[in-house]
Amino acid sequence: MNAALHSPVPVTLEWNGVRLEPLAPHHADGLRAAAADGELWQLRITSVPTPEETDAYIDKAIAMRPSRLAFAVVDAASGAVMGTTSFHDIVPELDRLEIGYTWYARSRQRSHVNTTCKLLLLGHAFDTLGCAVVGLRTDIFNHTSQRAIERLGAKRDGVLRHHALRRDGTVRDTVMYSIVRGEWPEIKAHLHYKLHQSGGR
């Protein structure tokens, strides 16, 4: 069994103008600013914290280690926090983890940021940690997220009915996706091609 996945540790990943830093209390102001770009906490289908909840959001993410490793998504040139993403539901016995808890400031959406983040995270998961499978999940009503996951090349595994609470107290169905190790080389090539077609940024 892969030792790195047994004992995952916070790591900094950087490429293509994006740096993923282990989420820490000093990211709080930047995370608040990113969430305020579009008032993302108003969206019922995501778990973006309100300004008042941001410190607790970070503390909770850190407390979930080692089953969750949260990152601040940072603009490498300016140091501005653009959002956050995580490895989560890490199961060493299965060489499996998931990528989620992902959101970006509205001005950074539909840019190179998400594709770059996924290349960094998937590359670390498959090439460094030796994962056999990487999962992704989203709300049944988050059609934008579903399209983004499908554009990565992930396969839709199914829907978990009555699966999790939303912030407004309603219960959501969760759409599950996955990428297995053998699919990674083609997906990696496809994501690099997409970035090239868009000028890389």
UniProtKB/TrEMBL annotation:
A Pfam short name: Acetyltransf_3
Protein name listed in UniProt: GNAT family N-acetyltransferase
Keywords: Transferase
Key word Transferase present: yes
GO molecular function: acyltransferase activity, transferring groups other than amino-acyl groups
Top-rank taxon: Bacteria
InterPro entries: Acyl_CoA_acyltransferase (IPR016181), GNAT_dom (IPR000182)
Location of the N-acetyltransferase domain: 19-155
Gene3D superfamilies linked: 3.40.630.30
